[in-house]
Amino acid sequence: MAGPVRPLRILLVGDRKSGKTTCCLKTVRMLRDRGIRPGGVVCPKLYDDEGRVTGIEALNILTDPPSREILAQMHCDLDGPSTGAYHFSERGLQFGRNALEAGTRLGDVVFADEFGPLEMRGEGFSNLLDLARTPSIPPMVIVVRTDLASDFCRRLEPIPATVLEINSSNRDKMPSRLLGLLRASI
After folding, report:
1. Is residue 82 a part of any domain in this protein?
2. Band of pLDDT at residue 5, cut at 50, 70 and 90
3. Residue 2 confidence (pLDDT) above 90
4. How far is it, in rounded angstroms, from Cα 56 to Cα 41?
5. What is the span of the domain harbouring residue 158?
6. Cβ distance 183 to 36 under 8 Å?
7. Which terminus of the chain is more exposed, N or C, with fewer CB under 10 A?
8. Residue 52 belongs to a domain
């Protein structure tokens, strides 16, 4: 007799600028090309005309093209919490939480970009940990910075996590690797 199915939780771990969000966006395209429906939220940086980071955008990837909302801006007070140079929009955070919830109901794979300092404090995408700990939720790819990965794994227990570390030497191959793991679990 087979035991209970263990949910697939993949932590995409890397330092700042390692390519975590880009990897997610490439994998989303690859999944769509194969008829697999991604859901959740991916949060790319926003840049000004001179290439400087100005903020973060939240993309609801359940829709194609994704719907979007400003998540955070630098050096500009918004109505949500702050961490580092980023000031978050409560509307953007709620948009991301809603995208995660919808992705778990309607997607074949759920992306959560990212578990960061706000989530460590119970803010931000505050529903992420509860969703990840729910065994019935589809496979999830959760973006986590290297320095927060072990804490996230502890918080995720008893759900096991597959940790993939992305860096400059493997980032070009990581979307294909991620796709292979996800396809094997769907």
Report:
1. yes
2. low
3. no
4. 12
5. 9-185
6. yes
7. N
8. yes
Whether 2 maps to a domain, the answer reads: no
Opening angle at CA 112, ends 69 and 138, nearest 5: 125
Q: What is the pLDDT of residue 138?
A: 96
Q: Identify the CATH number of the domain in which residue 98 sits.
A: 3.40.50.300
Instruction: Look at the block and give the residue holding tokens 């996800």.
Output: 182
Q: What is the spatial distance between Cα 108 and Cα 138, in angstroms, rounded to a whole number? A: 6
Per the prediction, the chain carries an average pLDDT of 93
Q: Are 31 and 38 in contact (CB under 8 A)?
A: yes
Count of structural domains, the chain: 1
Q: Which residue(s) pair with 41 in the sheet?
A: 60, 112
Residue 4 placed within a domain: no
Burial of 64 (0-12, 13-18, 19+ CB in 10 A): exposed
Task: Return the SS3 of 64.
Answer: coil
Question: Whole-structure pTM over 0.90, yes or no?
Answer: yes
**Owner of token pair 């292979």:** 180
- Amino acid identity of 89? S
Q: Which residues contact 62 (CB under 8 A, 6 or more apart)?
A: 37, 38, 39, 40, 99, 102, 103, 106, 107
Enumerate the β-bridge partners of residue 56. 45, 72
Q: Which two tokens stand for residue 154?
A: 């502890």
For 98, the token pair is 């809603």
Where do we find the tokens 């759900």?
Answer: 159
Q: Where are the alpha helices (DSSP H) in 12-127?
A: 20-33, 90-106, 117-120
